Each structure stands twice: as C-alpha cells, then as structure tokens.
Amino acid sequence: MTKFKQIQFPIHSALALVLLAASQSVLSHTRLEIPVILESAGAVGHGGTNVSNNVVISHGCGDGTNVIASSVVFPDGEDSIIKVNGVQTTSAIHDFVSNWGNRNQKIMNHSVFKFEDEKMDPLGNVVGFWVKGGAVPDYYTAFVPFRTSAVVIEPTSCAASVKVVLGIADICKITNVAGFADGKLNLWTPAVGSAYDGPGMHGYNSPATLTVMRDLDKNPLDAACGAGDAIEIIPSAAQMNRDMPIVHNGTQIWPKP
Ligand SMILES: [Cu+2]
User: Fold this and answer.
1) All domains of the chain in start order, with CATH
2) Distance from the alpha carbon of residue 11 to the mean position of ligand 1, in angstroms
3) Which of 42, 182, 193, 229 has its Cα between 20 and 30 A from that of 62?
4) At residue 252, what are phi and psi to the nearest 5 degrees?
5) Distance from the CA of 35 to the center of ligand 1, in angstroms?
6) pLDDT of residue 7
7) pLDDT tens-digit series, residues 95-146
8) pLDDT tens digits along 120-130
9) Which are the contacts of 145, defined by CB distance < 8 A and separation ≥ 6?
C-alpha cells in the first residue's frame, strides 16, 4: 500500500501540472466568460431565462499593443456547418434547436470601446456585433457584454448538447485581409476556408464556443436516444466572409477594403 501511494503522488502532480498548463493556455485565449449554459425548456417567450455573458479578451497582440476593436459572429443557422458527434451532417439546426436565430444581443457598454453595433442578417436577426474605439493594453483583460435568450432544444431530437462555435477577431491594427498577422490582430475563428481563418497565426482554428446543455429533467431524451448526441453549429465560410467585417455608418472600417 505504501509503495502504491509513493507511485501515485508523482503521477498526480504530473497530471496537475498538465491540467494547469492546459487551463492557462485556454485562459490566455479569447473565450466566453460562461462557456456552458442550460437550455430553457419552457415555452418560447414565456419564462425563458436570459444569460448575461461576456466575450473575454485576455490579451492583445503582443507587448506594447492595444486591442482597439473586436468583431464577433454567431452562426446564422442558414448555411451553417452542422456536426453530430463530430461528423458533418446535412441536417439543419432546426432539427435540433426549436428556436434558433436572433438568440444573442449585444449589451450596450461604452466603458471600454466607445463605439459598438449589432450585425444583422437581411431579416433583421442579430448574427453578431462589433466594438471599436478602445485601447486595451496587452496585459489587460476586457469584457464585451452580450446576452443569450433562451435556447430550446428540439424535444423530438436526440440532441443532448449544442455547441455554438463563434468567429471572433481582436484587432490591434486595422489592415486589409492580406495584412492579417500576429502582432496586428488575433483571430479566434473556426478554420472553414474563409478570409478569417488566419493559418499559422496564434489563435488558428481555436474559436470560442457556447455550449447549450439539454435540460434532461424538463426535456428528457427518448430512451431510443441512449446518452444523446453532441451537436455542433459552425458558421460557414460564406457567412464569415459576409459578417466578420466591421461596418460603421455604412462604411467598412475593418478589414480595409
Ligand atoms: Cu492566446
């Protein structure tokens, strides 16, 4: 027994170090303050719970740089990439979420970034937001607040969770797409083949996510579903190219056209 314990200790401390290193590298990237939320299984529009959240900008583009703007995109569910247990499917998000669309709204806050606005699709649904006119030092953390309205997981589906993949750019220097590089901006985007993939850059294919867990008490899974499926919704390249730019008063200010 004593011998077993002696072996066990170094394994645990090695594991603790690995976990610490892993959590620190995650913390150093731009993520959501609350990355996992519970669905509201109540009727849409009645007693749904809103979750106030923040995009957490954890660092800038290197010593001496300031984050001056940020751009955030949520998958619109129109041409989004949908995965079931990691495998891409032709199913639509509506097969798994009863009320997808317009779930996320910016919470106004001019204390860090002077200017902001929501991004809308042609139907007026919010598909993201941008902020600009700030100067967040590299060593600072900044919060960009938004709110998620109740997401209802389709009761007839086997979805146990829905992971929403975001596209985010933290911008230190306004450039055109060709000028994207470490030191100028951080791209926290899914690599879907858009102009905002940022291959080789610090945050390559390391997007922030918001996972909605099914409320298994109020919205139980059918026994045939077993443990249920992990669904993922990722913005398409076409949506990223359309919605990532910052357009202020009708003029695209980032990236430089
Ligand atoms: Cu980082």
Assistant:
1) 33-249 (2.60.40)
2) 28
3) 193
4) -75, 115
5) 17
6) 39
7) 999 999 999 999 999 999 999 999 999 889 999 999 999 999 999 999 999 9
8) 998 899 999 99
9) 52, 53, 54, 106, 107, 109
Rounded Cα–Cα distance for residues 116 and 186 (Å): 19
Q: 226 by DSSP, 3-state: which?
A: coil
User: Which residues are found with C-beta within 5 Å of the ion, ligand 1?
Assistant: 28-29
Distance 186 CA to ligand 1 centre (A): 8
Q: Give me the residue label for tokens 């996320």.
A: 104
**Can you tell me the distance from the alpha carbon of 232 to that of 84, in angstroms, rounded to the nearest whole number?**
7
Kindly give the distance from the C-alpha atom of residue 85 to the centroid of ligand 1, in angstroms, as a whole number.
27
CB 172 within 8 A of CB 185: yes
- How much is the mean pLDDT over the chain? 89
Dist. CA 30 → ligand 1 center (Å): 7
Q: Are 103 and 121 in contact (CB under 8 A)?
A: no
| pLDDT for 16 | 44
Give the span between the Cα atoms of 186 and 176, in whole angstroms.
14
Question: For 133-194, what is the HEC assignment?
Answer: EEEEECCCCEEEEEEECCCCECCCCCEEEEEEECEEEEECCCCCHHHCCCCCEEEECCCCCC
Which residue in 203, 217, 197 sits closest to 155, CA to CA?
Answer: 217
H-run or E-run covering 242: helix 237-243
DSSP character at residue 40: P
